[in-house]
Every structure is written in structure tokens, then in C-alpha cells.
Amino acid sequence: AEDQDKRPAVDPDKVIDLSAKMAADGTLSWDVPEGAWTLLRLGHGSTGVVNQPAPKSGTGLEADKMNRRAVDSHWKHGIQPILNHLGPLAGETLTNIVIDSYEAKHHAWTPDMRAEFKQRRGYDMGPFLVSLTGRCVGDIARTERFYDDFRRTIGDLVTENYYGYMAELCHNHGLKIAIEPYRGPFESMTVAMQADIPTGEFFSDLGYGVPFLKLCSSAAIFFFNDTATTEIYT
Fold first, then answer.
1. C-alpha to C-alpha distance for 99 and 191, rounded to whole angstroms
2. Is beta strand 96-99 parallel, antiparallel or unpaired with respect to 229-233?
3. Contact call for residues 190 and 220 (beta carbons, < 8 A)
4. For residues 197 and 227, is the Cβ–Cβ distance under 8 A?
5. For the chain: N or C, fewer Cβ within 10 A?
6. How far apart are CA 202 and CA 213, in angstroms?
């Protein structure tokens, strides 16, 4: 195997985006300049992670939590049918929707990522995508800064396009939203701000969950001057 620590850093100014030269069947048509080149093909797909725990009839792939179009589909097919069935009871008897703790595992891409990254971070991430293969781009400091910007963009998009947007959808239907704002690729206190009710959980048989309770109670007091709710599992 190639020793990545001994490879020279990649000059971002010499990275060439060949996307426009690739056909739909994956064939690359490129008049290669003289020199030694490394070709990298980067793509994205489903992580394959399904929601859990859930009954068989309610189990399916996790939605793209960075994309409002995906959240719209989730709402249309997962929540709206319940609201339609309840009719006038929605907002009266059913008063809030709960988003449990984040368990969708690593979520690192969305179709709009490159445009969103540039808008939020102020530069094109294209040349730095090479670093996601373990290569150093520019130098270690620049690569680490890109990693930080990349993680921040993921966190921003999940917070705004999933938690924030779900809150908006709930409010549009006369519902409140309760959120367990932790364990995901985001800043937990910022996610807690999207909730009407920050919630935590505690497993009494394991003593597991105290940090979650502290986080949610702190968010409730700081942002809402109110109390948080707790789920207790035995």
C-alpha cells in the first residue's frame, strides 16, 4: 500500500475538474497534458442506513437531512398521512412531534453541497475534495482548515434544513416540535434552539444519559427560560 504520509502535498491550483468531460456511462474524454497525472473519480450515494427502532412497515432509508427537498418527501410520505387521518385532532390532541436523538450515522454529502459550501465559506471546495481521500492539499494547515469548514457546513445544513425546517413545518400545521439535540454532525446547542421543547433521555439501568440531560436543561433555561423534558428508559 502507498505510504500516504510520504506523498507530496497536492497543489490546489493544479487540480483539474474533469466532470464536464465524463459521459453518462462513465467514459472520460480528455486530451491529457504531458506529465504524470493521478485520476480520481469521486461520487456519492446512499449510506444505506435505515431508521431505527421502527416497525417493519415504518422502516426505510434515512432521509438526506441537509436537503429540504428530501425533508419535504419525508414529511409528505411519513407525517402528512397521519395528520390527514387525524383531521381536526392534529394540533388539538396530537400537539407536538418529537425528533429523537440523531442515529443516522455519518452523513457527509448532499447534491447541493458544493454550492452551499461556497456560499457559506466563501471559496470553492472543488480542489480540496482531494483531501477527503486522505491527501494533503496545499499544506497541513490549509487541509485542516478545509476539514473544519467542511464539518461546519454539514452542521449548518443539518441544523437549518432538517431541524429548523421540521420546526417550520410543524408550526405551519399548528404543532410544536420537541428535539433531542445531540449525537449528530452539528453543534448541539444550535440545534436545541430550533426546538419548542428541548428533550433528553436517561437509561436508568445503565446510568447513561446524564450529559444529554445537562445539555437539554441548559438549553431550555438559557434560550427559553423554561424546563426541558426527559425520557426515562428502564
1. 11
2. unpaired
3. no
4. no
5. N
6. 7
HEC sequence for the chain? CCCHHHCCCECHHHCCCCHHHECCCCCECCCCCCCCCCCCCCCCCCCCCECCCCCHHHCCECCCCCCHHHHHHHHHHHHHHHHHHHHHHECCCECEEEECCCCCCCCCCCCCHHHHHHHHHCCCCHHHHHHHHCCCECCHHHHHHHHHHHHHHHHHHHHHHHHHHHHHHHHHCCCEEEECCCCCCCCHHHHHCCCCEEEEEEECCCCECHHHHHHHHHHHHHHHCCCCEEEEEC
Q: What is the pLDDT of residues 54-110, one digit of tens each?
A: 899 889 999 999 999 999 999 999 999 999 999 999 999 999 999 999 999 888 999
Q: How far is CA 212 from CA 61, 95, 229, in A?
A: 26, 24, 11
Summarize pLDDT for 30-47 with one digit per residue, the tens. Answer: 999 999 999 999 999 999
**82: which 3 cell numbers?**
397521519
List the grid coordinates of 140.
497541513
Cell of 74: 419525508
Block residue for cell numbers 444505506: 48
| Other Cβ atoms closer than 10 A to 223 | 14
Phi/psi-derived region of residue 137, left when phi > 0, alpha when psi is between -120 and 50, beta in every other case:
beta
For residue 139, the one-letter residue type is D
